[in-house]
Structure formats: structure tokens, C-alpha cells
Design brief:
13 strands, 286 residues, globular, alpha/beta, nine-stranded mixed beta sheet, single chain, 29% helix, 8 helices, UDP-N-acetylmuramoyl-L-alanine:D-glutamate ligase
Amino acid sequence: MAWIVVIGTVARDEVIRLVEPVRPGAHLNGVLAGSRLGGGGANTAVTLAGAGHRVTLVSAVGRDAHADWLLRELATAGVDTSQVARINRPTTHSVVLVDPFGERTIANLGRCEEDEPPHRLRDLAADAVFVRSRRRDLGPLLAEKAGTSLVVAHVPPMDPGSLPAQILVASRSDLGDEVVRNLWAHGKVVAGEGLRWFIVTGGPIGAQAISPDQTLEARAETVEPVDTTGAGDAFAAGLVHALVKGWSMSEALALAVRLGTEATRWPVSALPPEAVRRVLGSQAQP
């Protein structure tokens, strides 16, 4: 078990299940499927807690009833919410459109975010810090934590010096062609000289990890997805879990892909603990 801090969003995901794929300019038919816990920070934290770690979530929510419910859901999942700030803004609300093939499209209806970066991060002991935030002012805080902890950060942002980290993670769909062609150079600009790996996920095709002298690949199992929401967050949780246990990057990448794939089998945003335990229990230990 490790001490892990996750920085990222807590959101109320309002789900609409479409009866047809999203098409530009189309009139779409769908069915309301209720609300559920979501947000990249929450999804990753829940998965890591399900893997048995002590997880503290650094985030912000409003003072509304939706926030009360989301915090209860997080606590039930075993996530420490003591560092989730309550502020006078509406809690983050996302509309998630899920098509008949399980592919999701997300519309964020505003973000609940503190005006200042979370300086309380300095006082949190952590074996690892995972960052799933688009804030551009986290650089100084992350640089401090990288001196004592493993820092894994999801991009974007791609601003110079915005994410001092040993490991960057990105979805291929979030990167332009020019960045992909010069991945390591761009990664060093974002993360600094401490960067060791840049990992790019490709959804159903798996993921690739790149360092100055290695390129590793992990292929994904072919499945019929139910809902792809949160698959990238489950991937990140699997990666962090394996690395804090001392696994090699090759082993960590394989587990991350397995958890990301598992997430697509569930009609949720945050992978349930029983699913996490099932995957970890079937994973051969290195």
C-alpha cells in the first residue's frame, strides 16, 4: 500500500444514452440514464483506492447538494476527501453522451476550481502524485513534490514548465501531429529535465511508452465497449499502482492497458473496486 495524492476534478456526470452515433448537425435521440460520480481526479482516485492504496484527493467542489452526494460517494469508495475544498461556485457538471457502441462524448458545463493553486499539496506526504488537471499554475508545486515523490502528470496543458514530472501521459487524440513527431522534445519542454517517460494512449489499440533510449508497447484486448468514460483514468491508476509497487515500465504499461480496457466494460465513470480487484487478482506478479 502506498500514499498517493491525486489532483483533479470531481464532477457530477449526467449521462444520456444515445440510440445513434453523434453526427455534426444531426438531431439525436437518447434516454436520460441518471447522474453518477465522475471527473478525472475522482475516477483515478477511486480506482487507486480500489487497488488498496491510501488516496487523498486534492480538488474543489461547491457547497451544493450535488457536492454533498459526490463527497459521500468518494468516501464510500475509500478516498480521503479532507483536501477537497468547498467553495462558493457550482460543482462541476458534465453531460456525457454515450453512443450505441459505447463511445462517449463529454460536454463540461463549467468547472469548479479554486482561484489559487492548492498550496496545501506541500504539506501532504506522498509516495506518488498523479495530476489530472488543466491548471497552468501547478508548476512550482509539482517541482517541489518531484524532489521527494514520483510525479505522473496527464497532458494537456502543454505549456513550458507547466507539469514538472518524471512521467507524462497523454491521449493520442489530445496531441497534434507535430507534437507526436517530436514527442520527447515537447515532453521535456512541459516536464523539464526530470522527465523519464512519455506515455501515449490510443484507446482500443493500446499504449506506447517512450524514453530517450526505449520504446515500449502494450496492445489492448479486443472488447465490445459498454461505456468508454473513464477508461483513460483507469489506465493512469493502473500505471501509478504498478510503478509504486516497483514494477518495470513494461509491466506497468501492460497492467494500465488491462485496467483501461476493463473500464470500458462497465456503465460507470469510475471503475468499481470489485473490477479493480478482479484485474489485479488475475495479473501475474512480476
